[in-house]
Amino acid sequence: MTAAEPRGGIGAVAGDTSRHLIVAERFGVEVPTFQGEGPSCGHPALFIRLSRCNLTCTRCDTKYTWDWDRFDPREESTKQLAADLVAWATSSPVELVVITGGEPLLQQARLVPLVQGLLDVGKRVEFETNGTLAPVPELLVEGVRFNVSPKIASFGVDEAKSLVPAALEAFVGSGRAAFKFVASSVADLDRIAELADTHRLEPVWVMPEGTTADGVTATTRVLAEAVASRRWYFTTRLHVMAFADERGR
Asked: How far is residue 49 from each of residues 60, 69, 222, measured CA to CA in Å?
């Protein structure tokens, strides 16, 4: 099976309104953790990671959600009901539920009942999304925020696929989005500035690339002065610093 094959099936995932979601993993109840990135960095959090993605970034750190040349989708994903996921989240007092991926908005028709169920039991929801798919109106409600992470060329992706102006415009117009870019060099910051100006993206958060504590620290030092001079927000990768990028933390 090639990496292109699951993308061929993504249309069915996006348009299917069955009750099941394709889930890669869920964590934060049995072993507590926190949001490691962005505006809620450091907040206690539960995570629901959905399987499948519409991009194939070479620097992706969750390739087990889409790269079927390296991973077996039958081993890396399960079908779960929204009601079961709500019950799982309800078993924890933690308020924040992060829905991530892969690209979670590929399944957004089936996410509406999940999000509504989470809100009904007093949770708040953050989506981690690559910003290529506009959210449906039913997700643009009180208690839901979007951490939009457009991928630039240095992340190992074709920007013709990863930058979708209409989708970015929808997130800007929602008033519910922050824009979080992975960067490894000052040149990346120049590209981010171009995109922020062109698409009116704000607030802008920059996150240093790295899958080890030493890597995150080194990139932080490369970027910090230039990020500060632009008066952007800066976020670390706290889960990498704390748990060495351990899966499920």
From this structure: 14, 20, 30
Kindly report the CATH number assigned to the domain that includes residue 110. Answer: 3.20.20.70
Token couple for 141: 């409600």
Look up the domain containing 32 and give its range. Answer: 4-180
pLDDT, one tens digit per residue, over 168-205 is: 999 999 999 999 999 999 999 999 999 999 999 999 99
Rounded to two decimals, what is the model's pTM? 0.91
Coil, helix or strand at residue 36: coil
Return the SS3 of 100. strand
Residue 183: strand, helix, or coil: strand
- Helical spans, DSSP H, in 136-237: 159-162, 165-174, 186-199, 213-230
Tokens 């991530």 map to which residue? Answer: 100
DSSP reduced 3-state for 148? strand
Q: Give pLDDT tens digits for 19-28.
A: 899 999 999 9
**ω into residue 150 within 30 of 0, thus cis?**
no
Tally of domains in the chain: 1
- Best CA proximity match to 105, nearest among 15, 217, 220: 15
